[in-house]
Design a protein that fits this description.
The protein is mainly α. The chain is built from 21 helices and 14 strands. A hairpin with an 8-residue loop joins strand 7 (303-304) and strand 8. Helix 2 (32-44) crosses helix 8 (181-191), helix 4 (73-80) packs across helix 5 (84-96) and helix 8 (181-191) crosses helix 9.
């Protein structure tokens, strides 16, 4: 897990977050400067209509206030972190996309003034909601499944409808001009993949490729750099994930810490309001006690304390003429007090006994003030209880769980901690921890075990809808700290205090040992199974490799054998051809003897020569036929040995002829 330092952004805009269109957050074709301009305009617009203020609404204010409230081009550029020209291009792009309507304004002298910008995202969200409702109605009437299953070609998740209309972004962060538009675009992209309340990604976190496609960033180096900057700012918490079965890294999980920023700011505002309320009460009490009873202003009524410290305000009910009342407040031991006993609350008449307030103005009216000076009482000094050694360490451990604030510890939890540590003062009752006090280590172990082992961090979430929800985390943590399961008072989680022996009554230590042994056995079995799967995979790969090598060797041997057979056949063919040439050499010589040329002197013996030639030709034809048959048989054997399919030409002396086969 990648740690980060929690540093909330400077809160100076009067709002914690803005609403940003979810589809635009995943639109990689939209430039980061355009998205940053959208965010900057959202910080100027009101939260209901998403429209910026007009110059007429701030007429009469100073120039500094006008620059702070009105979206001048330079003011927008300062929050975007780019030039005015870039802002003009960005606003034009937003207008073309249908997200912005710009209305030009003129000053009193006819010169240009700050424009009025209206973001139309709310109208688009309303239309999408109506469209989804209509599609659902049609699907239900047709008996079709809702939501419909995806059909057609695969569409990457970045380009699908996210299923929600807007995401929440921290207002001071997106209004910080020192942050690059790439930073803000990546912030919006991550926000489109996290849960709206828990601010955490689900079972399938986005990959670098998906985040880059949504933010319009192609370089993985730039994506890693921007995410690292968000982590350094405390805005993002990155949890690295690994595949335990197959090995290798998986897509990291992301948690946005802006929700914690908003809670811290809300708590700070509440504390400021409480401090202002206490200061106002102290001032009113000092003035009234110094006057000894003053009349209420005409028509305004009197301030009073509601709900044990609620906001002091005017009730709007006028006091009867001549009837004087004074404010009675509770004493504060931590600040020294004013010596009075705590009153019953409400209003008391001047001169009445301290603590005689009835709680309403009607009971106090009916008679004029007597004018007697209140009887003075001796002031009783009270001091805060001394802290117990180690209690602040326990508060820090509880604060690390996110349950309390170490600077403002609830009284109930403070009393429980002091009781657990064996404090015998007035704030703690006599219990088993009084006789057998525990240490800080015991307290921290109890808090961590009772909080995480029982899943209290999940069950205490506001949006948790499962069984056994925890609605009061402080009370739950107090009960966990003071729980004593064993009947033996000196038993702490199965171990006897002082001796360290195992407790025979509860056997908690034995149960923990059994659980640890079972866990170790399960981990060992899982490790063995993984090793067996890896060994099986390696053996399978080795067998396949051996089969591939054997097949290759077989193919090589077959090729070598075929080459040897071809060489032998070629040698046999050459031998047969030489034999045939030797056997038919005489025929070739006889065929080469030229025929006698007829001449005029041979005319008388011409008939004799024709008769002799006919006899010789008959004998030659017979010899040639016999030789041809023998050659055909011999060449058939050669052809079978060579595997030749072409015609064989047999030489029979003076002519060539294709054998009849």
């Amino acid at each position: 897990m990648t740690g980060s330092v929690f540093r909330p952004a400077d809160q100076s805009l009067g709002l914690d977050y803005i609403e940003f269109d979810a589809r635009l957050a995943r639109d990689g074709s939209c430039k980061p400067a355009t998205k940053a301009a959208y965010m900057a305009l959202s910080t100027f617009a009101d939260v209901d209509e998403h429209t910026t203020m007009s110059p007429a609404e701030v007429a009469g204010l100073s120039d500094e206030a006008r620059r702070l409230l009105l979206p001048y081009r330079k003011s927008i550029a300062a929050r975007v972190g780019r030039s005015v020209d870039t802002v003009d291009r960005a606003t034009s792009d937003l207008a073309n996309r249908g997200f912005l309507v710009v209305t030009a304004q003129e000053g009193a002298a006819g010169d240009k003034d700050a424009n009025v910008y209206h973001l139309t995202d709310r109208e688009q969200w309303a239309r999408r909601t109506l469209q989804r409702a209509e599609e659902k109605r049609r699907a239900m009437e047709a008996g079709e499944q809702w939501p419909p299953r995806p059909a057609g070609p695969y569409v990457p998740r970045v380009y699908r409808d996210p299923g929600f209309d807007f995401v929440k972004l921290d207002a001071p962060t997106v209004a910080n001009g020192e942050k690059d538009p790439l930073y803000k675009a990546m912030y919006a992209a991550v926000a489109s993949f996290v849960h709206g309340k828990q601010r955490m990604t689900g079972d399938r976190p986005p990959t670098y490729k998906e985040l880059g496609a949504a933010a319009g960033i192609k370089s993985r180096t730039t994506i890693s750099k921007v995410l690292g900057e968000m982590t350094d700012d405390g805005l993002l918490l990155v949890t690295e994930r690994y595949d335990s079965d197959n090995g290798g890294r998986m897509a990291s999980a992301y948690t946005l810490m802006d929700g914690k920023w908003w809670a811290v700011r809300a708590l700070a505002r509440m504390r400021d309001a409480m401090d202002a309320h206490d200061a106002e009460n102290d001032l009113v009490s000092m003035e009234m006690n110094a006057a000894g009873g003053v009349a209420a202003p005409d028509g305004q009524g009197w301030p009073h304390q509601m709900d044990r410290g609620g906001r002091t305000r005017w009730t709007g009910v006028a006091a009867p003429d001549g009837h004087h009342y004074k404010k009675v407040s509770r004493s504060r031991p931590a600040s020294g007090g004013d010596g009075r006993r705590p009153s019953a609350g409400g209003l008391a008449r001047a001169g009445a006994r301290d603590g005689a307030g009835t709680g309403n103005a009607a009971a106090a009216g009916g008679s004029a003030a007597t004018g007697k000076t209140p009887r003075s009482r001796k002031a009783t000094k009270t001091a805060a209880a001394r802290p117990v050694p180690g209690e602040h360490d326990v508060y820090a451990a509880a604060a690390a769980l996110g349950v309390i604030d170490a600077g403002r510890v609830p009284p109930t939890f403070r009393k429980a901690v002091r009781e657990f540590l064996g404090h015998g003062g007035s704030e703690a009752r006599s219990t088993v921890f009084t006789t057998h006090p525990r240490t800080v280590e015991h307290a921290v172990a109890r808090l961590n075990r009772g909080w995480y082992a029982a899943g209290a961090d999940i069950r205490s979430a506001k949006d948790y809808i499962g069984p056994d929800p925890i609605r009061r985390p402080v009370g739950y943590l107090t009960a966990v700290l003071l729980a004593q399961d064993c009947t033996r008072p000196d038993c702490e989680r199965g171990s006897i205090l002082g001796s360290g022996e195992d407790c025979a009554l509860c056997g908690a230590r034995a149960a923990e040992a059994t659980a640890a042994k079972a866990k170790a056995q399960w981990e060992a079995e899982a490790k063995e199974k993984r090793a067996a799967r890896q060994a099986e995979a390696l053996a399978k790969e080795a067998a396949e490799q051996a089969e591939r090598e054997a097949a290759a060797a077989e193919r090589t041997a077959a090729a070598q054998a075929a080459a040897e057979r071809a060489a032998a056949d070629a040698e046999e063919t050459a031998r047969l051809r030489a034999q045939m040439a030797a056997e038919f050499a005489a025929l070739d010589e006889a065929a080469a003897i030229p025929a006698p040329t007829p001449s005029e002197d041979a005319a008388p013996g011409q008939e004799l020569r024709k008769s002799i030639r006919k006899q010789r030709d008959g004998k030659d034809a017979t010899r040639h036929a016999n030789a041809r048959d023998a050659a055909a048989a011999l060449l058939a054997t050669v052809r079978q040995a060579e595997g030749s399919a072409g015609p064989v030409i047999v030489s029979t002396g003076g002519f060539s002829e294709e054998p009849p086969f």
